[in-house]
From TrEMBL:
InterPro entries: MCP (IPR002067), MCP_dom_sf (IPR023395), MCP_transmembrane (IPR018108). Keywords: Calcium, Membrane, Metal-binding, Mitochondrion, Mitochondrion inner membrane, Repeat, Transmembrane, Transmembrane helix, Transport. Residues 1-31 are annotated as: Disordered. Gene3D superfamilies: Mitochondrial carrier domain. Belongs to the mitochondrial carrier (TC 2.A.29) family. This is Mitochondrial thiamine pyrophosphate carrier 1. One of its GO terms (cellular component) is mitochondrial inner membrane. Residues 1-11 have a biased composition (Polar residues). It is found in: Mitochondrion inner membrane. Solcar repeats lie at residues 44-132, 142-237, 246-335. The lineage of its organism: Eukaryota, Fungi, Dikarya, Ascomycota, Pezizomycotina. It is a multi-pass membrane protein. GO terms for molecular function: metal ion binding.
């Protein structure tokens, strides 16, 4: 017997070595199953619409951010305030001269943070309500009234979830503008979180973050309902015979038309929303007592046109905003739906 064998017999059998190498990758079949499960989930119509809605919101708001901010600055000017009593071109030039590119994008980051869940919930809940209450079978055609109802409920759902970010976005859009009432601008403007905390602490807690939600919901429900109803109605007429869907250009046209119709019909509620959102803002507040009181004061002091302040930059942004929103939504949704695995693969 050798020395090595003698030593082994005395100390017993050698202990197995501990492996420090990473665990082997999952077998191809298991990886395939997990991937198919994920693809099967994101390709579900409601989930695909939810994800695509978030993408559509971010794209559309970024495209028209300068016009969106200019619209807000026009909207909050009452009688006697004329810092932005300018044409659209001169207003944009003023923003660029005073604040540069940051002025064009002021509040857009918060707006995108808001609009991604807002748009996602809106598109997702619209598809959910449509399937839950009106579609007996997938793919059934809805009546215009059913689309209007689903869109209205979807609008209320989305705005309730994301309203605090909307009011903060309005404050961020105003705080760097050259209104005399705001006084000298601070060297460092507060950001989204700081503005939200300040409002919560100094303006009434949670109620401060939902100030103006009544005129918002009052306007959002018909706006979203009209938007969905008009888009799907126009889209039918822009789909050529023999095609399932219109081309990208015709989708852009349908989105522009639906946005213009919905915005024009509900615009006064948007003005009221902005006024109430700054109702307690230092130097800029209006102290309206209620929705009827706000309408009375605005019409008395500013005339009927006071309820349509900012509508020109708003209509200018509607076409590119809604067109890019609907186009990016449909492209993203169709892509996600197309990821659905074949039934044979799922059954393996």
């Amino acid at each position: 017997m050798s020395a090595a064998q003698s030593t082994q017999s005395k100390s017993g059998p050698p202990e197995p070595e501990l492996s420090t190498s990473p665990s082997p990758p999952a077998p191809p079949a298991e990886r395939l199953t997990a991937t198919n499960q994920f693809l099967g989930t994101v390709s579900q119509p409601v989930i695909a619409a939810f994800c695509a809605g978030g993408v559509a919101g971010a794209v559309s708001r970024t495209v028209v951010s300068p016009l969106e901010r200019l619209k807000i600055l026009f909207q909050i000017q009452s009688a006697g305030r004329d810092a932005y009593k300018l044409s659209v071109g001169k207003g944009l030039a003023k923003m660029w001269k005073e604040e540069g590119w940051r002025g064009f994008m002021r509040g857009n980051g918060t707006n995108c943070i808001r609009i991604v869940p807002y748009s996602a919930v809106q598109f997702g809940s619209y598809n959910f309500y449509k399937r839950q209450f009106f579609e007996r079978h997938p793919g059934d055609s809805l009546t215009p009234v059913a689309r209007l109802i689903c869109g209205g409920i979807a609008g209320i759902t989305s705005v309730t979830f994301t309203y605090p970010l909307d009011i903060v976005r309005t404050r961020l859009s105003i705080q760097s503008a050259s209104f005399a009432e705001l006084g000298a601008k601070p060297t460092k403007l507060p950001g989204m979180w700081q503005t939200m905390v300040s409002m919560y602490k100094t303006e009434g807690g949670v109620r401060a973050l939902y100030r103006g939600i009544v005129p918002t919901v009052t306007g959002v429900a018909p706006y979203v309902g009209l938007n969905f109803m008009t888009y799907e109605f126009v889209r039918q007429y822009l789909t050529l015979e023999g095609e399932e869907n219109p081309s990208a250009v015709r989708k852009l046209a349908a989105g522009a038309i639906s946005g213009a119709v919905a915005q024009t019909c509900t615009y006064p509620f948007d003005v009221l929303r902005r006024r109430f959102q700054i109702n307690t803002m230092s130097g800029m507040g209006y102290q309206y007592k209620s929705l009827p009181d706000a309408v009375r004061v605005i019409v008395t002091q500013e005339g009927i046109k006071g309820l349509y302040k900012g509508i020109i930059p708003n209509l200018l942004k509607v076409a590119p905003s809604m067109a890019s929103s609907w186009l990016s939504f449909e492209l993203c949704r169709d892509f996600l739906v197309s990821l659905k695995p074949e039934e044979e693969t799922l059954l393996q």
